[in-house]
Design a protein that fits this description.
Elements: H1 2-17, E1 23-31, E2 35-42, H2 49-66, E3 73-78, H3 89-94, E4 99-108, E5 111-121, E6 125-128, E7 132-134, E8 138-143
Parallel strand pairs: 2-3
Antiparallel strand pairs: 1-2, 4-5, 4-8, 5-6, 6-7
Helix pairs in contact: 1-2
């Protein structure tokens, strides 16, 4: 059910965002204590509260009209944050040359966390400046922040 709702919301958002600088990063429909429909957006220079409010109001209106979600839920529209998870190839492409942290299902050279500069990727591999990792072994990829 979650995937169906996430896909539907993506389909609704794509035409809403056309002609704007705003890009859809991800949609999540998850049950925590309550159901949450989370929409993550971004644009060059960053998202502000007005961007989030605009998209929230437009999406809420469309969802109210179609009424595709039977559960009570909270709608949240926000930036994915600085330490965002990179889920899609378009995310990886945008961050080629940036430092990423790759979490793996099983240790590689004794560690389940590998940090390196994202040099390239294919359907089957991630190439960092330090190593190449099979994508089937990757649990999560996120931007690496150094303070």
């Amino acid at each position: 059910m979650s995937n169906r709702i996430e896909n539907l919301v993506e389909e609704l958002l794509i035409p809403m965002l056309q002609g704007t600088e705003i890009e859809l990063i991800d949609v999540e429909y998850v049950k925590e204590r309550e159901w949450y429909l989370r929409v993550f957006i971004d644009k060059t220079g960053g998202i502000d509260i007005e961007d989030c409010q605009l998209i929230s109001e437009q999406l809420e209106g469309k969802l109210d009209e179609l009424d595709p979600i039977q559960d009570n839920y909270y709608l949240e529209v926000s930036s994915p944050g600085l330490d965002r998870v990179l889920k899609k190839d378009k995310d990886l492409k945008r961050h080629l040359g940036d430092f990423v942290e790759v979490s793996t299902y099983a240790p590689i050279d004794g560690s389940k966390s590998i940090v390196g500069k994202l040099v390239n990727f294919t359907d089957t591999t991630l190439e960092l400046d330090t190593t190449t990792i099979l994508r089937e072994n990757v649990a999560k990829i996120k931007l690496h922040l150094e303070f």
